[in-house]
Amino acid sequence: MQTNRFTVGQAIVRFLKNQYVERDGIENQFFAGCLGIFGHGIVAGVGEGLMENPDFRYYMTRNEQASVHIATAYAKMKNRLGAFACISSIGPGATNMITGAACATINRLPVLLMPGDIFARRNVAPVLQQLESSDSQDISVNDCFKPVSKYWDRINRPEQIITSLPEVMRVLTSPSDTGAVTLALPQDVQAEAFNFPEELFLKRVWRIARPRPDSSILEKAAAMIKSSTKPVIVAGGGVIYSQATEALINLIEQCGIPVTETFAGKGSLPYNHHLNLGAVGVTGTPGANEFTSEADLIIGIGTRYSDFTTASKTAFQNPDVKFININIAEFDSYKHSALPVTGDAKVCLEELLSLLAGFRVSDEYMTRAANSNKTWDKQVSEFCKVTGDLPVSQAEVVGAVNEFAEPRDVVLCAAGSLPGDLHKLWRTLDPKGFHLEYGYSTMGYECAAGIGAKMACPDREIYVMVGDGNYLMMNNEIVTAIQEGIKVIIILLNNNGFGSIGGLSESIGSKRFGTKYRYRDEKSGLLTGDTLPVDFAQNAQSLGAHVIKATDIKSLKNALAEAKKQAVTTVITIDTDLYKGIPGYAWWEVAVAEVAEKDTVKKAYQSYIENKKKQRYFL
User: Fold this and answer.
1) So what's the pLDDT on residue 605?
2) Degrees, nearest 5: CA angle 45-46-50
3) Of 272, 290, 448, 477, which has the most beta carbons under 10 Å away?
4) Structural domains in the chain, sorted by start
5) Are residues 94 and 64 in contact, defined by beta-carbon separation less than 8 angstroms?
6) For residue 389, what are the contacts with CB-CB under 8 A and spacing of at least 6?
7) Tens digit of pLDDT for each residue in 392-408?
8) What is the pLDDT of residue 240?
């Protein structure tokens, strides 16, 4: 057996750069490089390996959590067919990545995390940043990654990577089991040399299969659809990751079944397709929620049925409703006691098409769906209409950006009240044109994720829409964008507070307590004083961005035109009204205090109890 002598750090880098994926005959290198910050515990091992292999590009970020967000956004835009590795030091650098790991795993997106770890030989313990345990010496902060990782391993001997690295790739490239993968690397082991088999470093192609469903189950699914009168499709992210959008269009145009879209599934259909009912659930449209409430059959495709999608289990009110779940993950296909059609979404839809020959819903049902689509589109225009009032509404900003953007451009967002407005209002024409991280709704995702999205799709303009609260969480990666010459357009909406949580606080009777950016009032001790004098434009400019201040919709449109001509990351700031919002058309369960002194809370609790009566178990 031929061998090559490398350190563990060198061997890992050489392995990663030779991993490829192939689906439908198209082959691509899987890893785009490595993101992170060098610190003790990583610099002399993997860091030295990266220096020796400059063709495996290293990107220096400013926060380890942001590294993972960049990687997550990249994987999302690549339909999980591409990924990044992320590295960190052994202490706070490692734990900084845990939030990013949870975000990636919850969203079913592949990211490789390689935090440095304490010395395997232990003789110098406790090292700087080491968490000691009186119960075990075989523990470090990296054990915290276990519940948020789909695969976790610690390398205590050099030869262990020979069996561990293929397992890493197995999970990362698995459509049904992907997420964050953590490989904890003790700093002494990283620097140790070993005679590794030459085969470990040869090019390896991981073929991404399209598993077919069980034929008898698929036939039963077809029979259930044929016997339904009010079927509705809930299109999730799996439709897009499987590249099944064309197959979905073929199916619904043959059968007339209307479609609703989750956050991850928005873009499964063009917004103006006559059978697209739009966003579903808590942030859904009236039509989508009306149809799902009446449906006698819900066909979930690539969705995990989050509480926002199901309106906290109140969305499906037909007493005879049944479920068919088409999902690559068996875990998700069984939800709601559904008929589990476990397989690739594209293949399942293509095979259903022939089984449903001759089936079509009633003309009246299709007409209702088409009318709902048109009615909502008119309502979107009303919400986005420019009133001339200042500060402008968030909906006006969304409308202006949407109108300016090209069909293949991408809007990107994650948390706050913006995701709900975008879910309802954004007119999506391209399957990758709507990038919402709402599995974990991670504040701080946006500025970093914009970089990952642009790296994945350099030919698309990326419009990062972010509120002031999210921007303050993690704006540091603007520096990374400038350093790497990556251009994104960031639209920063400042309403001087947490608009989403403020509205939620009001709905539960707490009167927006602690949600506004205000000085503390000396008499009351509350944050009810004057607005804080934060200058977001100066902040962004100090990080190296080109900055444009907009004051109204006209100046915003001019700013967008100027930003498009820029070669560098550009930040557009605009003040928005904290209180003007888009109404909700479904309930979301957030627990309300059962006893309270304030009448507003008591009233909210009574409403809470009434709404809970609509919740259902699906057994």
Assistant:
1) 92
2) 125
3) 448
4) 3-207 (3.40.50.970), 215-375 (3.40.50.1220), 385-496+534-575 (3.40.50.970)
5) yes
6) 577
7) 999 999 999 999 999 99
8) 98
